[in-house]
Specification:
- The chain is mostly helical and 167 residues long.
- It has 5 helices and no strands.
- The protein has helices at residues 5-31, 45-73, 84-109, 112-141, 148-166.
- α1 (5-31) runs parallel beside α5.
- The chain is elongated, with a radius of gyration of 18 Å.
- The relative contact order is 0.21.
Length: 167
């Protein structure tokens, strides 16, 4: 509707965050279970495993977005619609606030899985910012600059991969 692959890429990354957050939440809850007969040292290792899952999900999202961005760059299309910009600004604010909240919880509980989830939210905010820059360039540049938002989505992939290592 808005002719912006950068906005679609941002949505893909947000969907990845939701999926990973559900896995992280379940793993975190499981890791808090006390030691039992089958797990004499407790269930804490699940926290590390869900943290690794979060990093893997970020890598997968980055690969998919990069592939689609390259396809979009090579395909002539219309400039993104102006209304995609306020949508992304709202996403940036919400995701950064959520990231800060989850980072605080990660520190409180000393949880690698929550830290990875917080990085997901932070990378989504940064991805949205890159998309917003690309859309702004496409809108201001006019004819011939239509693919700037696709380049913004591609540039955001490097941020996502960097954050995958941080998780």
């Amino acid at each position: 509707m808005g002719n912006s692959y950068a906005l679609i890429a941002d949505g893909i990354e947000s969907a990845s965050d939701i999926f990973s957050s559900v896995i992280t939440w379940a793993g975190f809850r499981w890791s808090l279970k006390p030691a039992d007969e089958d797990h004499p040292y407790g269930h804490g290792k699940i926290d590390a495993l869900t943290g690794m899952f979060s990093g893997g999900a970020l890598f997968a999202a980055a690969a998919f977005i990069a592939y689609q961005s390259i396809l979009e760059i090579r395909t002539p299309h219309h400039s993104p619609a102006w209304f995609t910009l306020p949508v992304l600004i709202g996403v940036i604010v919400v995701k950064e606030l959520l990231s800060r909240r989850v980072f605080a919880a990660a520190d409180t509980f000393d949880s690698n899985a929550l830290k990875g989830d917080a990085w997901h939210h932070r990378s989504d905010a940064i991805t949205s910012a890159a998309a917003a820059i690309g859309i702004t360039i496409a809108l201001i540049g006019g004819k011939g600059w239509e693919m700037a938002d696709d380049w913004g989505a591609l540039a955001a992939c490097s941020v996502i991969v960097t954050n995958a290592f941080g998780s």
